[in-house]
Amino acid sequence: GGWLGDMNDNFKTLKEVQTENKKLKEQVNDLITENNNLQEDKYELERLQALYKLDQNYAEYEKVGAHVIGKDSGNWFSTFTIDKGSKDGIEKNMNVIAGTGLVGIVTETGPTWSKVRAIIDDSSNVSAMVLSTSDRCIVEGDLSLMSDGKIRFEQMENNDNTINVGEQIVTSYISDKYLQGILIGYVSEVNVDSNNLTRSGYITPAVDFKNLQEVLVIHLLQKISKGAGNMKKNKIKRFIVMVVILFISYLLQCTVFQKLTLASIKPNLLLIITASIGFMRGSKEGMFLGFFS
């Protein structure tokens, strides 16, 4: 009876150990899950703190925060989709920032989403300048360089200004799509081109294009873009109106004004209208320069 009792006791002890072991495993799993959640919250807080700091660095601009919800294939966020669109005031050509600087530009919008092309994309070209000297250059996207963590700049004038490694490259004042002064990255290499007239080199981007989760979209560019677009349209309209007026003037000159004489002089309507429009377009620019500008 003693032997059977011992066996029974051992069996009960084994069951208790197994039950306790199962509980401990469940507790360990719960602790692992809780730890992962805490780590995720920590990383999210760090990213949001970085975004807040970035927001303060460009406090003069109104911005909208957005989450990245999709991207094209590949390791890099060269083109991607965010969860804010036209309902949030997002429009094409608005600048997008993250990390400590420029990410890219909005290329397409829907009601609740927008597509962004990053400055590292092969089709991207950004008018830029050296912050300390204002020397201008073009920053070109090239995904093949991203494995080395750099992007290329070209067409910088080879003048007396010394450009050192670590210099900040920012968006220039002549860009028609990017706001001035947004950090692109830091010079990592500068070379004089074979023509001895220009310099080119490489930049370390200010943004981690391998890990993008949240971005800020700047609202201001839409107003600049619209203004530039309206100016172009108005110039085209003025040109068409002027051509029509000159054509009508030519027809009148060849018909009605051929029969008119004022003080023995036949008035030249075409010349009168051309000169008048020229003077009205700008006396400082000169008659014909004012007319054709």
User: What would you report as the Rg, rounded to the nearest angstrom?
Assistant: 33 Å
> pLDDT under 50 segments (min length 5)?
222-226, 283-293
What would the average pLDDT be, to the nearest integer?
A: 82
Q: Sheet with the most strands?
A: 6 strands, antiparallel, barrel
Strand order of the largest sheet: 1-2-5-4-3-12
Q: With helices defined by DSSP (H or I, 4 residues minimum), what is the helix count? A: 4
SSE arrangement, N to C: HEEEEEEEEEEEEHHH
**Number of E-type strands:** 12
What does this protein look like?
The protein has 293 residues and is of the alpha+beta class. Helix content is 37%, strand content 26%. The chain has 4 helices and 12 strands; from the N terminus they run H-E-E-E-E-E-E-E-E-E-E-E-E-H-H-H. It has helices at 2-57, 221-254, 269-281, 287-292; strands spanning 63-71, 79-82, 95-98, 101-109, 114-118, 125-130, 136-140, 151-157, 168-171, 183-192, 198-205, 214-218. The strands form 2 sheets. Strands 1-2-5-4-3-12 form a 6-stranded antiparallel β-barrel. A hairpin with a 7-residue loop joins strand 1 (63-71) and strand 2 (79-82). Helix 2 packs antiparallel against helix 3. The longest helix has 56 residues, at 2-57. The termini are far apart.
